[in-house]
């Protein structure tokens, strides 16, 4: 499904201080963020209690910054860190076990030339992204993988500044409805109202007023992949379409 939407109003806010932040500055702001007390308490508790398989691991247990190519034209927006995945390893979509969301996503990215390998196990596993950067709507692991609406809003400035630090982004793939809606909310916060308002659907594709393309994709959670709601071919086709929107 492919749509072109029109811009009703555009008054995008300038970067703080008039200049775009660096990815290092954005990273520092994310990992020291204390905006959501409930999420910080939860991530720290999980880091203390741990899972039996990871009793000897030192958990990251902090907000998780984005990861990838600083010259990326593709931005992937996920939901939030997994309690024993990115909250443990400190890297998005990393460490949630064989067949988990990280490996599922990297397999699709690898098939389309965006990643050098099909697995994502820990920060020093050699994974490199090419022309792609992965962020999240929420940077702390939420209880039951369900952030509250106010927590999503609290995290929007991080996504905004990350996007400012990635000036080459042309296409956004949102993994799941929360990530999709967060990106649309970000546009609204920048003063861009879109009519009709895009709605999430798997493989949906919307050309935004700024010329970027927003693509929807089911989130590669085990709930979706183990039930067949999202298959490897379905996800690979989404990133094949993303590749086509970028051209050569």
Report on this structure.
- With 248 residues, this protein is of the alpha/beta class.
- It has one domain: Uracil-DNA Glycosylase, subunit E.
- Helices cover 34% and strands 14% of the residues.
- The protein is built from eight helices and nine strands.
- The strands form two sheets. The protein has a seven-stranded mixed beta sheet with strand order 1-8-9-6-4-5-3, sandwiched between helices.
- Strand 8 and strand 9 form a beta hairpin.
- Helix 4 crosses helix 8 and helix 5 packs across helix 6.
- The relative contact order is 0.19.
- About 5% of the residues have low confidence.
Keywords:
alpha/beta; 248 residues; 9 strands; globular; 7-stranded mixed sheet; Uracil-DNA Glycosylase, subunit E
Helix percent reads 25-40%
Strand order of the largest sheet: 1-8-9-6-4-5-3
Q: How large is the share of residues in beta strands?
A: 5-15%
* Overall form: globular
> How would you sum up the major sheet?
7 strands, mixed
Counting H and I runs of at least 4 residues, what is the number of helices? 8
Name of the CATH class: Alpha Beta
**Quaternary structure state of the chains depicted:** single chain
At the fold tier of CATH, the topology name is Uracil-DNA Glycosylase, subunit E
Question: How large is the radius of gyration?
Answer: 17 Å
Layout of helices and strands:
Layout: E1 2-4, E2 6-9, H1 23-31, H2 37-49, E3 67-68, E4 74-78, H3 86-89, H4 101-111, E5 132-136, H5 149-164, E6 171-175, H6 177-189, E7 193-195, E8 205-207, E9 213-217, H7 222-225, H8 232-246
Parallel strand pairs: 1-8, 4-5, 4-6, 6-9
Antiparallel strand pairs: 2-7, 3-5, 8-9
Helix pairs in contact: 4-8, 5-6
């Amino acid at each position: 499904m492919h749509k072109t939407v029109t811009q009703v109003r555009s008054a995008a806010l300038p970067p703080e201080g008039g200049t775009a932040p660096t990815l290092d500055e954005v990273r520092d702001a994310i990992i020291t963020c204390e905006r959501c007390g409930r999420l910080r308490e939860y991530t720290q508790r999980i880091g203390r209690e741990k899972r039996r398989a990871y009793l000897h691991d030192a958990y990251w247990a902090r907000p998780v910054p984005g990861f990838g190519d600083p010259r990326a034209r593709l931005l992937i927006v996920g939901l939030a860190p997994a309690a024993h995945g990115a909250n443990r390893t400190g890297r998005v979509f990393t460490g949630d076990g064989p067949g988990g969301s990280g490996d599922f996503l990297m397999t699709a990215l690898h098939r389309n030339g965006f990643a050098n390998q099909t697995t994502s196990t820990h920060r020093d596993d050699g994974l490199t992204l090419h022309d792609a950067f992965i962020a999240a709507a929420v940077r702390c692991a939420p209880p039951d993988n369900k952030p509250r609406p106010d927590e999503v809003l609290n995290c929007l400035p991080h996504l905004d500044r990350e996007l400012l630090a990635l000036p080459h982004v042309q296409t956004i793939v949102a993994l799941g409805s929360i990530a999709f809606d967060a990106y649309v909310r970000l546009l609204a916060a920048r003063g861009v109202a879109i009519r009709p308002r895009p709605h999430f659907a798997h493989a949906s594709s919307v050309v935004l007023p700024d010329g970027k393309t927003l693509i929807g994709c089911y989130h590669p959670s085990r709930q979706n992949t183990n039930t067949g709601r999202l298959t490897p071919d379905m996800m690979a086709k989404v990133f094949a379409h993303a590749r086509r929107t970028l051209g050569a």
